C-alpha cells in the first residue's frame, strides 16, 4: 500500500472576535424546556436565572427581559423619564444607550469621556446638568467600570436618577461592588457576544423594591399582579423566555471560569503587545475589569481600516470601537467631544472569547505587529 502523503497544510481557520462557549449545561437545560413544553415566558429557569444574577451581583432584585436594549428603555421609563427631560449619556457608547433615551421622548445630552478608561467623565457630566436633567446614564464599556464614586455623589447632590448600562460589564466590580448596584437600576445584555450570553436576552437589577415591582409589571404588559387581564399602567412585552433563561443559568454556572480565562487573556495580550505602540484601556483604581473585549488604541496616524484588512488577510477578525453617537445623523448638532472622538477613531477590539487558545492569541499579536510595521509604525 502506498503510504499516504501528509496533507498540505491548508489556511489556518479564521479567528473571530467572539464566539460563545456553550459547553456546560446549556444543551441539557434547553432540552428540559422542550421535553417539558415550558418554552414560553413562564417556567422555572427564569426565576433560577434571576436568582443566579442576584447572587452574582449582590443585587436585591433582578428581572429577566428579552434583550439589553429594552432593559435600558424599561429602566428609564420606570424612573419616569419622558418628554421634556434630559438624560446625560457618554457620546462614546453603543447606540442603544442613546436611542432608549429618545424612545422615552426625552433628549440625550452627550458628555465626553476620560482619556485613561475611555468612560463617562464626571466633570463633563456635571457641567452639562440643567434644570431639565432627570438622570445620568453611565456606560461601563469593554469590561471597565465608570467612576461611580464621583457620579454617585453628583447624582445624589443634584437629585438625579442613575441607570448603569452594564451590558459589557458582567463580572466587573468597583471597590468590591458589582457594577449596576451603585445606581437606581443596572441593565445587562446577554447578546451572543457578551460575557454571559443567551443569544438574545437582558436583565435589570435594582435595590429599590418598589421600582423593581414597577419594572416587573411594566415588563408584562402592565398587567395587575393580582388580577389577570387588568392593566392599570402602560406596559410592554419585554419578557424573557424559559429557553433563554435555561441557557443563561448554564452560562452563569461557569461564570468564575469564564472570568478567570478572560483575565488571563487580557494579561497575555498585554505581554504579547508590550513592544508595540498601542495603548490599552486603563480602568481607574479599585476596578476589577471583566475584560469583555480586549481593546487597544492604535498610534496616532495609523490607518485603522488598513490594519483591520491586513489582520483579516492573516485570518484575524477585529472590530473598530463604537463611533460617537453625536456624529450619527439623527443626533448630530455640530458639538465636539475631543477625547471621545480620538478614542472612537483609534480604538480596535481584539478576539477575546473564553475558548481562545494561546496559539491563536500569538497569531493575533503577530498579525497586529505585521500590520503596524506595514505602516511604518512599529
Ligand atoms: C450590547 C449592548 C447593549 C444592548 O444590548 P442588546 O441585548 O443587544 O439589546 C446596550 N448597551 C451596550 C453598551 C451594549 O454593548
Automatic annotation (TrEMBL):
* The protein's name in its UniProt record: DegT/DnrJ/EryC1/StrS aminotransferase family protein
> Which family would the database say this protein is a member of?
Belongs to the DegT/DnrJ/EryC1 family.
Which Gene3D superfamilies has this protein been placed in? Aspartate Aminotransferase, domain 1, Type I PLP-dependent aspartate aminotransferase-like (Major domain)
Q: From what organism does this protein derive?
A: Craurococcus roseus
Alphabetized, the UniProt keywords read: Aminotransferase, Pyridoxal phosphate, Transferase
Carries keyword Metal-binding?
A: no
Molecular function per GO: transaminase activity
**Pfam families from the entry?**
DegT_DnrJ_EryC1 (PF01041)
Domain of life, source organism: Bacteria
Amino acid at each position: 500500500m502506498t503510504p499516504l502523503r501528509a496533507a498540505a497544510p491548508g489556511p489556518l481557520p479564521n479567528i473571530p472576535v467572539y464566539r460563545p462557549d456553550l459547553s456546560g449545561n446549556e444543551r441539557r437545560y434547553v432540552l428540559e424546556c422542550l421535553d417539558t413544553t415550558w418554552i414560553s415566558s413562564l417556567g422555572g429557569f427564569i426565576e433560577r436565572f434571576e436568582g443566579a444574577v442576584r447572587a452574582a451581583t449582590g443585587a436585591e432584585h433582578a428581572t429577566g427581559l428579552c434583550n439589553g436594549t429594552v432593559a435600558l428603555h424599561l429602566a428609564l421609563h420606570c424612573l419616569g423619564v419622558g418628554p421634556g427631560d434630559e438624560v446625560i449619556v457618554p457620546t462614546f457608547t453603543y447606540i442603544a444607550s442613546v436611542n432608549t433615551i429618545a424612545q422615552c421622548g426625552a433628549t440625550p445630552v452627550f458628555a465626553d469621556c476620560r482619556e485613561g478608561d475611555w468612560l463617562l467623565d464626571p466633570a463633563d457630566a456635571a457641567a452639562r446638568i440643567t434644570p431639565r436633567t432627570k438622570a445620568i446614564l453611565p456606560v461601563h464599556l469593554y469590561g471597565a467600570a465608570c467612576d461611580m464614586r464621583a457620579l454617585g455623589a453628583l447624582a445624589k447632590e443634584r437629585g438625579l436618577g442613575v441607570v448603569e448600562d452594564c451590558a459589557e460589564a458582567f463580572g466587573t466590580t468597583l471597590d468590591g461592588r458589582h457594577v449596576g448596584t451603585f445606581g437606581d437600576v443596572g441593565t445587562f445584555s446577554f447578546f451572543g457576544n457578551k460575557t454571559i450570553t443567551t443569544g438574545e436576552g437582558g436583565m435589570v437589577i435594582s435595590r429599590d423594591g418598589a421600582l423593581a415591582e414597577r419594572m416587573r409589571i411594566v415588563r408584562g404588559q402592565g398587567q395587575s399582579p393580582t388580577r389577570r387581564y387588568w392593566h392599570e399602567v402602560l406596559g410592554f412585552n419585554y419578557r424573557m423566555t424559559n429557553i433563554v433563561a435555561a441557557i443563561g443559568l448554564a452560562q452563569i454556572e461557569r461564570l468564575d471560569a469564564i472570568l478567570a480565562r478572560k483575565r488571563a487573556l487580557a494579561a497575555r495580550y498585554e505581554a504579547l503587545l508590550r513592544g508595540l505602540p498601542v495603548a490599552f484601556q486603563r480602568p481607574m483604581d479599585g476596578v476589577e475589569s471583566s475584560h469583555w473585549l480586549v481593546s487597544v488604541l492604535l498610534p496616532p496616524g495609523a490607518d485603522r481600516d488598513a490594519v483591520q484588512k491586513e489582520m483579516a488577510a492573516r485570518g484575524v477578525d477585529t472590530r473598530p470601537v463604537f463611533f460617537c453617537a453625536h456624529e450619527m445623523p439623527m443626533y448630530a448638532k455640530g458639538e465636539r467631544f475631543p477625547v471621545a472622538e480620538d478614542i472612537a477613531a483609534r480604538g480596535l477590539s481584539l478576539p477575546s472569547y473564553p475558548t481562545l487558545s494561546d496559539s491563536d492569541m500569538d497569531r493575533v499579536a503577530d498579525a497586529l505587529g505585521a500590520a503596524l510595521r506595514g505602516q511604518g509604525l512599529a
